[in-house]
Amino acid sequence: MRTLFVAQRVSNDGFPLVAPTSGWRLLCGFTLALSLCACQQPRELAPGQIWGYDNRAGEGASTIQILYIERGTLLGDVYFVSVRALDVKRLGRKIRTTEVWPLAFTREALTISLRNYQWSEKVNRPYLKQLDLWLLEARDGRAPERTFTVPIKDALNQIESDQPEGEKRRFAEV
Question: What's the pTM?
Answer without folding.
Answer: 0.68
